[in-house]
Structure formats: structure tokens, C-alpha cells
Amino acid sequence: MAQPVVLIIFSCQSGDTEKVALAAAVGAIQGRALIRLRRLPDPEGSSLTDTLTRMRKEYVPPTEKDIAGADVVILASSENSNASSVPWSSFLPLVRGLHQDGKLTGKICTSIGGIAPMMTDMDFSPAEIMMTDPVALGRSLADKVRAARSA
Amino acid sequence: MGSRTINLEVSMITLRRSNERGHSNRGWLDSYFTFSFADYYDPKHMGFRALRVINDDRIEPGQGFGPHGHRDMEIITYVLEGHLLHRDSMGEQHVLGPNEVQTMSAGTGIVHSEFNASDKERVHSIQIWIEPSAEDFKPSYQQIAFKPEEKRGRLRLLAGPDVGATTIHQDAKLYATELQPKQSVSHSLSAGRHAWLQVVRGDVNLNGQDLHEGDAAAVSEESGLTIAGSGAAGGEILLFDLG
């Protein structure tokens, strides 16, 4: 049986949400999934810190192909983000379009942080567990895919 | 040309020549694969005993592998030239250079990135994967440094199941040695044990067989190995003693 693919898309300038994304990725690996970590581009004018310089080097932005190839899509945002804040304001319309085209059908989609309440109409369930134990969330979603496949 | 097996009485040495390895060049990363890896797949070369991967990587300045995951694998990195910057989900962040060895036990799961730490120099490194003896070990990270003379003309233990080097969860030992022309080292293999010899630099001679950079030899049913430096400048090898 092919390994589940867990895609984690996050926005982060400080490194805090990156830690949550990494923890969810570790959980997904514990659940024997393949992981893809993608970071949204920074808002224009972001202050260039060492952390930001590093993350710009280490991560690439998500593509539609990434989403198409994933069994699980986790969107991770900071608590003070919302659907109109950059960079989510330019990324969420892509997600909405995929949802309307039925391209998210069959995928497990979940979101955390400030954007979560705005995502429910796109079948992204808020993942409350994520804020306390992102490792458990990643693992449980990977397990869920495996269970669905073997059912 | 396929691998060549040489039977010497009861011993068996199978050569794996450098030019028989898989090869991938992505521009920023030029890799030779001793065993099947990524897009290189050859069912005849899936590993040897618990040894699963030997990748000979050259990474361009400032480039590297973004965060990716591993599970249930002992991952050993040995740098020949340049410096690699490692970061992982356990919070480890280290720079690895020549005369050091890094061993990461992925166990239940780990995410890490590896980048060339320099914006000017290329990195030449060897990445090794060894299958652990069991699944679900606790993830761990180790890095040790040693003096260059510790591997000159003698076998320097880099990784093994016991103390004295980095620890791996497998009945396997990894040694490095650098040999001047005609300088030699010997290694005894206990009954039922096997060896893999990988030439990472220069030229050597293994029990009468000439091996060059990138060449390797699988050894079974042999009680002793004699490895000598050859060519104009000798060579450096990695030697695996495997159950």
C-alpha cells in the first residue's frame, strides 16, 4: 500500500508556526506517511532576520501539483492571521478554486490558527488538537488515511 | 558492464565499479548512488546486508536539501570536503566538516534539512543509510570529531553498536582510513561476517584487487582483508563490517 502523503502549508516569519508545522510533520512520519512542507511567500517589506533568511532558503512555496498529490492538507497559520492577511489573502482563493472544482474531494483537509474559522466552508475542519499537540494531529491524520485505505 | 565476482578459494569479493553506479545531476546536486535510490532503481543493487544507501554527493555552494522526513533508518554523514549545515526537528543545529562524523537515528520519525554551509565552496559528502535492528527507536543525533592522524594508516571507528564512536542500532561497524601508497591496514572478519569497502578518494588495493575512487567491493566468506594505498597518492576508504 502506498504511503499517505501529508502536505503541510504554513506561513511564518518568526519561526513559531514553522515549529508547529515541523511537529505535525514528525507526527505524520510517525504515522508512516510521506511529508511535504511548503511555506507561503512573505509579505512585501518583511524585516529580514536570520530566521527569515534561512526559511526562504529551506522552503519552497506550495503549488497546485503539491495539493493534487496529497492525501492530507494541513494549513498552519499564526493565531493573529486571518483570511484577509497577507500571504493567506492571495493563497486562499487558489484553495477555494480547487474546492469548487472538486479537487479537494477525498482529501483530509484541516487548518489551524487564525485562518481556521474562515476555512470551514471549504471543507477544512479546524484542528483544535493542533494547538496543544501537533505531533498527535499529524500522526492521527496519517493513521486516518491508512485506515480508510484498508477499509 | 555488470558487477564482477572473483572467487579466491573459499572467499568471495564482488566488485562494484564507480562507473556502474547510478548517477543524477540536478545542477545544484551531483550524486552517485552505489545502491538504488530515488529515481535510480536497479533490483540487483538494493543494498548489502543491513547497508542500504551509499550516496556520493557534491552540493553546490549555498544549496542543499530542504526539510524532509526519515523513519527507521540509521543515517551517517561523512564529509570529505567543505561543510554541511544540519538542522532538525529535535532542535539540533550543527555544522559538519572533514574529520567528523554525524549519525542520526531516525527511529519513530525526524525532519531535517542539510545545506552547504558555504556560499563559496562545494561540499563533497558521503551519506550512508543502515537499516536498524528494529523499528521505533527514539530519534537521536550524534556528531563527533577526531584528529586526522587517527585515520592515517589505521582504521578509525566512526559508527558501531558500542561506545568508541557514534552509536547505531545495528550489528554493524563503520571505519575510515587514509592510506599512503604501499601503506596498508588489515581487518579480520569473524566467521559469518561480511564487509563492504567503499573507496571515497584516490586508489587502494584490496587483497590484490585494484580499486579506484568510487569503486567498492562486497566481501563474504573471507577471514581477512588487507587494504593498501596505491597509485600516486594512495587513497581513503570506508569499511563496513556487517553481520
Averaged pLDDT of chain B, please?
Answer: 95
**C-alpha Rg of chain A (nearest Å):** 15 Å
Overall CATH class of chain B:
Mainly Beta
Total of DSSP H or I helical runs spanning 4+ residues of chain B: 0
Give me the CATH superfamily of chain B.
Jelly Rolls
Beta percentage of chain A is 15-25%
Distance between the termini of chain A: 12 Å
**Biggest interface between chains:** A-B, 17 and 16 residues
Backbone structural class of chain A: alpha/beta
CATH architecture of chain A: 3-Layer(aba) Sandwich
Radius of gyration of chain B: 17 Å
What is the fold's blueprint, element by element?
The complex is a heterodimer of chains A (151) and B (243).
Chain A: E1 5-10, H1 16-30, E2 34-39, H2 50-58, H3 64-68, E3 72-76, H4 88-100, E4 108-112, E5 125-126, H5 128-132, H6 134-150
Helix pairs in contact in A: 1-6
Chain B: E1 4-8, E2 11-16, E3 22-25, E4 29-33, E5 51-59, E6 64-70, E7 74-81, E8 84-88, E9 93-96, E10 100-105, E11 110-116, E12 123-130, E13 140-145, E14 156-160, E15 166-167, E16 172-179, E17 184-188, E18 194-206, E19 209-212, E20 216-220, E21 224-242
Parallel strand pairs in B: 14-15
Antiparallel strand pairs in B: 1-2, 2-20, 3-4, 4-5, 5-12, 6-11, 7-10, 7-12, 8-9, 8-11, 10-13, 14-16, 16-21, 17-21, 18-19, 18-20, 18-21
